[in-house]
């Protein structure tokens, strides 16, 4: 339960420290004093939307910190363990900070956590019933949830089973629907894929082939350069092209001519010898060039084959927008897709069978849940009529009406089963049952919600319940009954209540007075825990006496407190 709360710079609150205990806590005070600000602070601490207008004027930030005893909250302990958060023995701290700079800080056990984590944890700690929450009863979509919340463990297990069967049905339904759409386009798709498969099969693509061909082409390109150079050099030395002699033949002719005149002059002899050396050097070079040319590995035919193969890869890569090796994988996938399309009839049959089986499982589970809900509804109706009788609505009939679909309406599975429940009441004898939205007044809605809270008090696992002016629209004897209901709930849960009614205030185990003061040039809200005499004075004020010192007003307040004390000791 909530042990303490510290509030700083929230609206009119500058700093506030409150201690909480077991039982019923009541906050009273003049209208506008700031009672609901305390509830707003608790809401903020628990992870509700950060309304920065709550930050006290002139302040940069506002904080709310609470300490909870979680000794009897195993669900919270599990959540803390999952987040590696360690409470101090049985005490867990929660802190929320908001600022004008849009900074939002949440801490649990002193560790910063996401807002969703804080909300998840707080959902197991506090149930807040705001001033207008009873309006949720007007929403028929909420009625099924109210009814189910009264189910025991066996009923909850049926709900879980229906939800699981629904998810299975939804998965099989989606798979069956997708296959039906795919089947509608099967022939067109099959023709399209077959054409691609035929083209890729004809290309006989292989993983790594394109890279290997590119390397070979690079080598052949180098060999071609060598062969061209060697061939040109060899032809210039030895071959005759276009009637022109090669270098070796010209050197031979020059040598012959110089040898004929060598005897005429020593210079000619020297030239002849030099030409002889040049000729033999050129002839020897020609032989070496011929040998080198014969050893060159360039193969023009193989080069053409490689270029043709690379062209196929380039064309297919451009067409399909893929890399060469991806094309090989794509070709295999196409074959698998073609096999899948050709086996579509069998797959459709299997998907349809799975869909129908899962739908049958869901319907069976939903029928069991409907049976459980029908029995639960009868008990719930009796329980609610008993609670409403206590609350001054003794002639009220309360019914859970199971809406039936129209004859031509197909009921689609849902995670909550096949049931649509509406709450109907007949507040007056002789009047027919009608939906809440068409019958219940604001005061009746408040009492209906309180009746539900009271009826669920001994089974609701949330340890703290907060009521923010649930007494709207009630007064007189009924106000006394509402106070007793609050006290009954407080036997099982910690209850915090904001009220204007003396009858409810008198039932409190702990009472606070919320007041508004002017300090300096600022207005501040304070909260004071009242002792026994202060409670007499405050309850006397709520009764409506003009002068609280009048003996009648004080005596009435004392009598109310004495009656409340007597009831607590008789019933608790």
Looking at this protein, list some descriptive labels:
572 residues, 6-stranded mixed beta sheet, 18 helices, alpha/beta, 6-stranded antiparallel beta sheet
Would you kindly provide a written description of the structure presented here, covering whatever features stand out?
The chain is α/β, with parallel strands linked by helices. Helix content is 55%, strand content 16%. The chain contains 18 helices and 15 strands. It has helices at 35-45, 74-82, 115-122, 143-148, 153-184, 186-203, 209-238, 247-260, 266-295, 300-320, 324-342, 344-390, 436-439, 442-455, 476-490, 502-506, 532-543, 551-571; strands spanning 2-10, 13-19, 24-28, 61-69, 91-99, 104-108, 111-112, 126-129, 397-402, 421-426, 434-435, 464-468, 494-498, 510-519, 522-529. A 6-stranded antiparallel beta sheet has the order 2-1-4-5-6-7, with helices on one face. The protein is elongated, with a radius of gyration of 47 Å. 29% of the residues are buried. The mean pLDDT is 85.
């Amino acid at each position: 339960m909530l042990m303490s709360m510290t509030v700083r710079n929230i609206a009119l609150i500058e700093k506030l420290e409150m201690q909480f205990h077991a039982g019923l806590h009541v906050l009273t005070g003049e209208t506008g004093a700031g009672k609901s600000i305390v509830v707003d602070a608790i809401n903020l601490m628990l992870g509700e939307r950060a309304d920065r207008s709550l930050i006290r004027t002139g302040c940069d930030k506002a904080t709310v910190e609470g300490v909870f005893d979680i000794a009897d909250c195993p669900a919270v302990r599990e959540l803390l363990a999952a987040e590696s958060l360690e409470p101090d023995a049985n005490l867990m701290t929660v802190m929320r900070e908001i600022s004008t700079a849009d900074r939002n800080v949440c801490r649990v056990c002193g560790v910063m956590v996401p807002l969703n984590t804080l909300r998840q944890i707080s959902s197991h700690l506090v149930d807040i019933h705001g001033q207008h929450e009873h309006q949720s009863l007007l929403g028929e979509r909420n009625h099924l949830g109210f009814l189910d919340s009264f189910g025991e463990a066996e009923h909850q297990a049926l709900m879980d089973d229906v939800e699981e069967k629904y998810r299975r049905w939804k998965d099989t339904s989606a798979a069956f629907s997708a296959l039906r759409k795919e089947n509608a386009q099967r022939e067109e798709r099959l023709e399209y894929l077959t054409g691609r498969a035929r083209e890729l099969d004809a290309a006989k693509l292989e993983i790594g082939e394109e890279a290997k061909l590119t390397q070979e082409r690079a080598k052949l390109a180098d060999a071609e350069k060598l062969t061209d150079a060697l061939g040109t050099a060899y032809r210039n030395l030895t071959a005759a092209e276009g009637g022109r002699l090669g270098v070796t033949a010209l050197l031979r002719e020059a040598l012959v001519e110089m040898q004929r005149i060598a005897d005429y002059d020593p210079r000619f002899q020297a030239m002849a010898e030099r030409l002889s050396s040049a000729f033999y050097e050129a002839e020897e070079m020609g032989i070496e060039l011929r040998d080198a040319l014969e050893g060159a590995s360039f193969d023009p035919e193989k080069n053409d084959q490689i270029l043709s193969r690379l062209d196929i890869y380039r064309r297919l890569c451009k067409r399909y927008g893929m890399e060469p090796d991806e094309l090989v994988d794509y070709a295999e996938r196409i074959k698998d897709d073609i096999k899948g399309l050709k086996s579509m009839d069998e797959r459709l049959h299997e998907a349809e069978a799975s869909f129908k089986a899962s739908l049958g499982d869901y319907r069976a589970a939903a029928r069991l849940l409907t049976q459980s809900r029908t029995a639960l509804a009868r008990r719930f109706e009796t329980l609610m009529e008993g609670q409403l009788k206590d609350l001054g609505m003794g002639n009220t009939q309360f019914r859970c009406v199971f809406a039936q679909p129209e004859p031509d309406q197909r009921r689609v599975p849902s995670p909550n089963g096949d049931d649509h429940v509406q709450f109907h009441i007949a507040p007056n004898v002789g009047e027919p049952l009608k939906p809440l939205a068409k019958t219940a007044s604001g005061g009746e809605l408040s009492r209906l919600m309180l009746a539900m809270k009271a009826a669920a008090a001994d089974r609701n696992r949330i340890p703290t319940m907060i009521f923010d002016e649930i007494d709207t629209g009630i007064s007189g004897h009924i106000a006394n009954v509402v106070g007793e209901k609050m006290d009954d709930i407080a036997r099982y849960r910690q209850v915090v209540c904001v009220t204007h009614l003396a009858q409810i205030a008198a039932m409190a185990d702990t009472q606070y007075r919320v007041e508004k003061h002017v300090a300096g040039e600022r207005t501040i809200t304070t909260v004071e825990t009242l002792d026994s005499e202060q409670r007499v004075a405050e309850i006397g004020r709520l009764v409506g006496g003009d002068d609280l010192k009048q003996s009648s007003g004080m005596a009435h307040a004392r009598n109310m407190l004495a009656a409340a004390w007597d009831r607590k000791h008789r019933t608790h």
